[in-house]
Each structure stands twice: as structure tokens, then as C-alpha cells.
Amino acid sequence: MTVQENWQSPIAPGVSWYQATVGERPTYPELDGSKTCDVAIVGGGYTGLQAAYNLANAGVSVMLIDACRFGDGASGRNGGQLGTGQRSWPEELEEKIGYERSKALFDLAEASKKHLLDFASEHQIDIEFMPGQMNVSHKERYKRYYYENAEIAALRYDYPHLRFMDREETQERLGSKRYYCGVRDTGTGHIHPLKLLIGLARVAANAGAQIFEMTKATAIRQGSGKVTIETPKGTITAGRALIACNGYIGNLEPVTASHVMPIRSFIGATVPLDKYPAVLPGGEAVADSRFVVRYFRKSKDGRLLFGGREAYTADNPREISEHIRRQIAEIYPDLKDIKITHAWGGSVGITMPRQPFVREVMPGVTSIGGYSGHGVMLSNYCGKLYAETVLGKSADLELFKALDIPAFPGGAAMRAPLLFLALSWFALRDKF
């Protein structure tokens, strides 16, 4: 393996603070020539690499390709927050799908969290885990929902780690007067996502998975009981395949593309906040109640990692730092002139109901994605569950397959403009 310095992702803007702190970042070969295997995987993020590791570890012949370098997509550039449960609060899911299914999905998410932390510990991957997360409200009228959320989690979902925070406590724990209340979650935390991704690729390769970077899938076909994946330098023929491209599906597979929409999200890293000890003194991560959510946390060396500006197109803003700094200043006015050392972005794969998309899109071909900003835990576990499905060890992936995930309206030509209008409306509502 060789190492490339100062690598700029070709699919996402900016060089992340994560990349700047991982030291030597290994590279893997390109696919060169046609090959056969039992299972082929397209996408080298958490989902694909977890599936590759678990399959290879069980003796299955598996090949994985990624169009760029591992970590160039969301798995290596995200906000690093684990969260709890699904993207929606359990009581919201319960209204739609009933208590039994909502509880099953909540328990699955808790298993996802445990799996991630156990996996990193077992394979000695230093993911820089830091405990604690707070969900906070930017509107006073949401107070009842936050209070009830903590009660429901304990009484109905066997999760005693949430506690309601009133306005005074919320402001003290954040070091900001911007929010009215919140819940503090001591049963979760946040991580260095690229360190997890790099470790996961190493573990998958060591288990015997054949993994290839800089190898773009140009077409995928099914016929005569086989799946064929075309690349610029050869084809992969397999018994079955997993599409794990999430927000980077492009035009590879139309069913996935109609159900998973990429949106841009951006993050900035400040200099260490040694002069501002009141900012997040407990070191928890934070996500707020905006539909266009703002999410931020402290790194282990005391930097503020702040994300929140979303763009509902594939375009990149000219200057990420200035947009992020303005949002930081709304919450922390004393940081209005803080130096931002790194600013970067990437595509988040979302679905209409903000729940994962898991479907067999053609015989023998499963697509998994659309984690909607809640993918650090779920994507890792979905990769594991896919492998267990192939191995006949678990049917838990069916919980996601059973979710009703409609396609975005308007078809290929109209879905992006319609989504832009809809989400811009929600962003406007966040201000009132």
C-alpha cells in the first residue's frame, strides 16, 4: 500500500479535519481485469465494508469496489454522532407503524450502537469515542415534547439514559443562551468517523475480502442467475450483489436513485477553544430541533466541529467557512471571529420519511442506503445484517425492508427541484 498526501476528494468539497488527523491513510488497488466471486459489493463506506468483512470472515468470496478512495463519501466525512434509536423519535414512529414495530426498530438501533463500539474495541480501532449527546430545542413551544420524550424512552422503550433539561440547564451545558430546553443522553456519544472507516477497511482486507478503490461501477445487470457489474477495466460476475452507494448512487441503479436523494451538508472545524471553557464543558455532542438540523460537538483536542448548512442540490458553496461561521455566531456570539482551520462537505442520502431504504431492486441485488443523517450506527449494522441474511443467520434486515419508503415525486427531472422547494419551506419554518 502507498500513501497519498493532501488528497482532495473528487466527490466532496474541502479537506476535512478528520483527514488532517489520521496520519498515513492507506490506499488500495484498482480493479484490473474481470473476476468472479460469490458476492459483489458496490460502495466502500460503512455498509459495504461491514458486509464485506462479515462475509469474508465467514469464508464467502467477496469483492468490493468504490469509485473513489475509502472515506471520500459520507462515512469518512460525517458529523460523528451516534444518536439513539432511529432518525425519528420512537413515539413518532409508534404513531405511524405501531408500538411493536417501533420498539423492534428501537432495539435494533441499540444493537447497532453496541455493535459499533464492540467492533472498534475488538479490532483495536481508536475511534476517539466521547460520551454524551444532547438534543435541544430552538423553540420554546416544543418543551412538552422533549419532556415526554425522556419519559417515553424510559417507560415504554426500556431506555433510562435520557433526561429532560430545562432552559437553565440546557444553556449551562451548551454554554449558549440560544436554546430553550432539551434532553441529555448519557447512553451514546460521538466518534472520529474516518478512523473507524480506515480501521474497517483494514479489518475487511485482513479477513480476506478483495477491496478495490478508484474503481467506478458503470453498469449493473442481472441475468441467467448471475449479477454482472461493469467497470472501466473489467467486470465482476457474482451470485448476488449489494449496492451500498447511499447519497452517491448517481445513475447506477434507477430504483435506488428514485428513493434516495443526495443533499449537501457542510462542517467546519475551529481552532481549539482553550479560551472558551464554557462552550460544551461536558464534551457532549449536540443536535437541534430544526428541520434543517444543526449539529456540533467538541473534538478530543477541544475544537468545535460544527455542521448544519444543507444545500438541496449537488452544488458546492464557494466559501464553506463563512457560512458555517455565521451559524456558529448565532449560537455562540463570542465565537463570531473564531478561526476555522478546516471546512468540508459531502452528500447525505435521505429518503422521503427519513428512514433507511432497504430493497431487492432486481433478483439477487439488494440496495441499502438513505440513512438520512442517522447513519453512523445504522449503516455499520445494516452491512452486518446484510451479511447475516446471505449467511442465513438473521432476518433482522426485514425490519427495514418492511418500511414504507415511497419514491420522490416528479421522476428524475423534477424530484430535485420539488425537494428544493419543499425543504426550503421547512427551513423557512425553522425561523418562526
TrEMBL record:
Keyword vocabulary terms for this entry: Oxidoreductase
Single annotated GO MF: oxidoreductase activity
Keyword Magnesium: no
Occurrences of domain FAD dependent oxidoreductase (ranges): 38-388
Signal peptide: none
Record Pfam families: DAO
Assigned GO CC terms: cytoplasm
SUPFAM superfamilies: FAD/NAD(P)-binding domain
Protein's recorded name: FAD-dependent oxidoreductase
